[in-house]
Amino acid sequence: GQVGEQAVEVTTPGGTTEVPGGFTYTPTPTATSISPAAGPVAGGTAFTITGTHLQDATVTIGGVPVAVTVGGGGTTLTGTTPPGTLGNKPVIITTPGGQATVPGGYTYTTTNIYVTNSGVGGNSVSVIDPGTNTVTTTIPLGNISPQQVAITPDLTRAYVVNFQSNSVSVIDTANNTVITTITSVGTQPQGVAITPDGTKAYVANSGPGVNNVRVINIPANTLGPTIPVGTAPRYVAITPDGTRAYVTNRDSNSVSVIDTATDTVIATITGVGTNPAGIAITPDGTKAYVVNNGSGNVRVINIPANTLGPTIPVGFNPLIVAITPDGTKAYVTNAGAGSVSVINTATDTVLTTITGVVTQPRGIAITADGTKAYVANFTSNNVRVIDTASNTLIGSAITVGSSPVGVAATPLPYPAP
Question: Which of 83, 124, 175, 338 is found 20 to 30 A from 154 (Cα to Cα)?
Answer without folding.
Answer: 124
